[in-house]
Amino acid sequence: MNSNIEAAELNMEEADELKYSRTIEDLPGPKGIPFFGNQLQMRGSQWHVTLSNYIREFGPIYRLNAFGIPIVVVSDRAAISSLLKDRPESFERSRGLRMRMNELKVGGVFTAEGEDWRKQRKLVTGGLSVEVIRNFFPTMGMMTQRMVDRWKATLADGKRVDLRRDLKALALDIIVGIAMGYDLNVVSDDSHPLQHDLDSLMRRLASRGTSLYPYWRRFRLPVDRAADQSAHDVEQTVLRLITEARERMKQQPQLREEPTNMLEAMIVASEDPESGFSDQDLVSNAIASVVGGIDTTANSIAWMINLLAQNPDTAAKLTAEVDAVLGDARMSREWEQMKLLPYLDAAHSETQRLRSSTPFLGLLAKADCVVADTFLPKGMVIFVPTTFGDGLDETQFPQHEQFQPERWIFEHKPQKDDDPARKVFPFGGGQRLCPGRFLALIEVKVVVSAIMRNFELEFDTTAPPVQQVMTFFMGPSAVPVRLRSRT
Question: Does the predicted model carry a pTM greater than 0.85?
Fold first, then answer.
């Protein structure tokens, strides 16, 4: 712990008391209504925007309450950094959210805590290591090329490309390919049931996450029965892939010594009684890897396409960089090219600043603590913005509403206080830094470079404004961008 966060169990063995100058009651915050408090203000698909606006109004730490239960929102950069570093020892994911995720079979490393989390994270991070991703790179390129070919054929037929659907389908193909070794080819199948089931599952998880009362534990509405069916169908698909993988490993025993993907590594662990990794852990993490690898990356790319289409000068700069790196090729085929796209890196960072897929993280204090000089008791719910704090602060990012990748490009490494990467936390931080962040970065580079190399972007100015829609992750309400094939 450091000066920003001092936590301690208040027991007889500890002589030093926590030092603070205020308590929750001293904090500013929006006025609630009797019984509900601020709960109704935090519902809906744009609750993250509401919390962000409150930061501008009430400052770097303010209070809310839901049905009398206090919640603190902390946007102070130093405090956020310390909070993330102190996970999982001092802070954990909200228990209510973990329960809701587990009910819909979206668990695994997402909902695990303590030693259970460490055990599971080791397998997940191993399955998404730089070496694994580099070996998968040609397959990722093939899958992206398949999408580009589909789009060109669609345009040749005079039809419009459904960017939002196809980007999610590609992300699903890629995560299942790298994590489980299967090519589902969802991109080419508009009616693939797995994509439908995952969309249904995520919508229901989001709805339950902001529900006033967990009524579904007493009775099921039709939407709950549909979500339960989707969760069951996703689980059955994963179980089928596990069965096929086990059969393949039986035919190829060397795969037990040198697994080629995350699923094979988890199967080996689940069959080792000393690993402490159960069959249920295997299934939960297989589902979690799929869920975590789709909307986050697909939404990031969709937001970037929207922003590029609305900023043609920026799109032109990116196109020029991609053309220079790829030359006559229409796709990136060489791993080393991933290091030669600094403007694309900057455009991605700027997209994350403006439109992070996970704009807020929810934490639960495991002990009494002091955060930003404020005493918080054990069990306190804390919301921290990953990018919607300093990332949308005019003093930190002048003209903060504008899409300017140039703010991430420097001739020399910036000083600590000037480094924009130290002001936002799109992938979290500390030990619970997103294990799929490197895969996401490579996937963005491969897909966006292919789009810019093969197509021109035209924003549909007649379309309704694009809204920020928070389901379990935050994505655009639409991608009103027309593609035109480049000659």
Answer: yes
